[in-house]
Amino acid sequence: MIDLTTKRQSPDDVEALETKQQSSVSDLAVEHALLDRKSRQLLKKKRRRIQHGGGSKQDVIDAFGEQASASVMVKVDEYLRKEKTKQLKISDVQQLLFWVLADGVNPKWILLRHKPLIENVVFVMVDSLGHDFLISNTKDLPKLASIFDVACPIMIPSSLFTRMSVLHYYHNCTNRIKGFKPRNNAKRQLPKATSHRPPISHYMLTEQELKQNEYPLSTILETDPNFTQFDLRPAEAEEEGEIAADDIVIDKEEKETTESVDGDEEVEPESKRRKPNETETIHSTTTAKSETVLGSTVEEISTETKKEEISGDCDQKGNLPSLDQLVGMDCEMVVTENGFELARCSIVNDQSTVIFDKFCKPKSPILDYSTRWSGITEETLRNVTTSLEDIQSDLKKLLFKDTIIGGHSLENDLKALKIFHANVIDTALLYPHSAGPPIKSSLKYLTKRFLNRDIQCSESGHDSSEDAIAALELIKLKVKKGTSFGVSISNGESLFSVMNRFRKPCTMIADAAILKRFATSAVSAIICENDSEVVQKSKQAVQGTSAFVWSVLKGPALKKEISAESVRKVDSNISEIYECCRKNTLFIVATGQGMTYQAKSLQEKKMKIIKDGNRDSWSAADQKELDILMSSSQNGLVFVGIK
Questions:
Q1: Architecture of the domain defined by 85-106+120-182+492-595+636-642
Q2: Can you list the alpha helix ranges (DSSP code H) found in 302-409?
Q3: How far apart are CA 449 and CA 314, in angstroms?
Q4: Class of 200-481 per CATH?
Q5: Which terminus of the chain, N or C, has fewer Cβ atoms within 10 Å?
Q6: Is the pLDDT of residue 184 over 60?
Q7: Is 446 in a helix, a strand, or coil?
């Protein structure tokens, strides 16, 4: 069995392949000798064209016979020595895809024989497989070893431990790819509106997205008695269909004590962020794009992941669907002995009118008012007697289970309120960052870019009512403009968009969260709940009409102990897809960041220490261990073979 830690190749291997090509030509010499001079010259031209990667399938058959087949020789060691580097880049793999399926440039790290015969590419991504993982589990991957001769080291640029970040780099095609120029430069122009305007329920987070973005889940009602949820809407309220003006709750006396807030920072408030930054925060994220699933949109076929639609499309005049059940929310928090606790809550209705705005006195002693972000000072809360329970009671009179709450990074607001609510629209996910997940744009940036308005401009901190209005208007704009509005890839182009330009049908097979982030109208998207479904759907897709099939396997669960059985299952899954591929299919397997459980745990530990202000407990040894683990997670592998 081969060593998957990167098999060394000698120049003799390349010479052997070239000799094999010459031998194949010699076998046809007698037959070609019987042809006239003009025909022989034509065949020579065809062979030269094929050797340079050109020509057609028929040219290969004419020059080398009916039995000709494609083959591959990976010259990665020679290439890396010339480039004076240790790893391939993801752009090198993208260049290979474009070389085979589009009008790309011949990559120097791989030699394809009879390239015109390759009409299909199957790309399998296995996130839980990594460089170190494969080295320690080689004996449990015999089928992978039988398919591929060489494992090529590849650099994974992201140190953020999410599946989305790795997929983003393969999906986003930039001018770093040799010979490729992306069609659009989304960073310099606003995304255009689309005629597809689904109901507002399309933009609500699914249960899976709530979990991925660390929102309170329904199970917390059983484990934490302090958490509550909203009640069902009373019959009379359902008939009215909106929040009455009499329900507006604003503590005017407390409101008058509020200082002018709005900061000139591009960051989210610390109380709303786990790691403050000048321009963005880091979380796991997905986007609200429209996806075509073999002729149907994801929301039409995935009844388990999409909530029941609340309202219909925009009318012919482009008016918004009914937004009576939509409110905007924003909260401000302060740091106490028990962490972040609620200090202010603001809610606005669909007309951007403030209907609730109250301050809250935390139970625990306050350590830091975080005035720079919260706008809360000691004077602000001096005479406040309202408790968290009072806020919860007031909100339950205003909001109901079917109310749609919109806001920016609402997971922290709901945690501070100690409320579980499923109907949520998050503008941090609605307008994805141009660099891709898991990075998020700040509310200030989104408001300036899409609403052309400045917020958070005061040095005194943020104003929760202003932030709630901004988030609400961003949601209304998205609903009005359609799913593609606000979704862009900076300085790049979607891989599927490139394939679509060259009339190459594409299929992506993955779970709903991945498809919602990456699938567009240019790709047929197939939703699967587990790896078994991915394998079965992939086996069907590789026999279909798609020139490019991208399958995403989860692999073993990302935890400390992984059984040999789960490793062999991954090996079997890859083999099953390979065996169903057509002859002369280019088959690629790429790994992700591997087992990142320990590195992610250390990262969370460090962030918690920083948040608690106890930096001395984070030692140099801890940092060194984290650096080693993060460096290891950036080492990936890619396998290339021909069926």
A1: 3-Layer(aba) Sandwich (3.40)
A2: 371-374, 388-398
A3: 24
A4: alpha beta
A5: N
A6: no
A7: helix
